[in-house]
Amino acid sequence: MKTKKLQTTTEDIQAAAELLRCGELVAFPTETVYGLGADARREDSVRAIFAAKGRPADNPLIVHICSMDMLDGIVSYVPPIAHSLAKDFWPGPLTMVLPKKDTIPSVTSGGLDTVGIRMPSHPAALELIRVSGCPIAAPSANRSGSPSPTTAKHVMDDMDGRISAVIDGGLCEVGVESTVICFDDEETIHILRPGLVSAEDLEPYAAHVYVDEAVFRQIEADAKVASPGMKYRHYAPHAKIIPVDAPDFMAFEAFVASQNAEDTWCLLFDSDPTMSEVPCTRYGDNGKEQAHLLFLRFRELDEQGAKLVYVRMPKKDGADLSVYNRLMRAAGFEVIKL
Ligand code: TXA
Ligand code: MG
């Protein structure tokens, strides 16, 4: 199959929408990462997503919508908290897990009776959903296990020849995937995956907000988890990623100097001084900048032939937790603490 490269023009979005209506797979930009889309209601198309990604069948997909009317067609109940959150955070990087209607087949939801729903804010994504008339099931458009793609080139690197088209919307703004939440009861928000929308942002909406333990530690492959995606190793480049929890840059630098493995790189903060011994790249100074750049840097490090990458540790509070979580998962939750 030849993968068509499309732009975000009206004409190209129409062509992409037509492909979706015919049951084909189209990758498209969102504000978080690129999604690999298909009509969420078509079993055959959704199965093709799992095949193209090499994704385990029990890992459910997020369904992308462009209006609250579309939501009514696919979920059977929307708790009052979810209504308030939709009003304030949609369109945007927040996914809510809600009870699904039969219009969403069980392949889409990984066999669960719930479905994760998100209204993305990227204009090309919204337009694609609107013009196609399809609720679009879309996981991140990477091969399973690789870092999520934040450019159309990343999508092509992983998916060329496996999908019908990719819409090029440039570098994604947010850079890490959406915050995924579910509701344990009418008053409790349970964060399954941290994203730009933080626990602090959600606190005004519920009596209780808590973060799932799978965000902080490795979950066994056979464990029963609230969000199946959290048990798989993820987001990892080919290079071995080693987060180094150092009190300051000097301690970090001294540690790196004491190691002398070949093809070693460092991923530093922008404000860190230069290091002469080891090649370095940087990923910003705060959570927002780091989220924007982390997956891009992972892929660039692979292209540079890095085998081992020592990474300055991000913070854990607010939206920074999303960066911490992606980094820890890329590292298999192993950290060097100085
Ligand atoms: O930002 C994003 O969310 C991107 C863009 C394309 O929208 N999508 C994305 O999809 O990251 P994916 O498939 O790579 O990650 C979906 C996550 C997985 O961890 C999955 O287990 C969880 O959401 N999830 C989806 N539906 C769920 C459900 N019904 N219950 C629990 N977790 C669910
Ligand atoms: Mg993914």
> Any guess at the CATH architecture of the largest domain?
Alpha-Beta Complex
Structural class: alpha/beta
* Rg value: 20 Å
What's the helical proportion of residues? Answer: 25-40%
Q: Quote the CATH topology of the largest domain.
A: DHBP synthase
Distance between the termini: 50 Å
Give the integer mean of the pLDDT values: 95
Order of helices and strands: EHEEHEHHEEHEHEEEHEEHEEHEHE
Spatial shape: globular
Low-confidence blocks of residues = none
* Assembly state: single chain
SSE order and pairing:
Layout: E1 4-6, H1 10-21, E2 26-28, E3 35-39, H2 43-53, E4 62-64, H3 68-74, H4 80-89, E5 94-99, E6 114-118, H5 123-132, E7 136-137, H6 152-159, E8 165-167, E9 179-185, E10 188-193, H7 199-202, E11 208-211, E12 240-245, H8 249-258, E13 264-268, E14 280-282, H9 287-303, E15 308-312, H10 320-330, E16 336-337
Helix pairs in contact: 1-5, 9-10
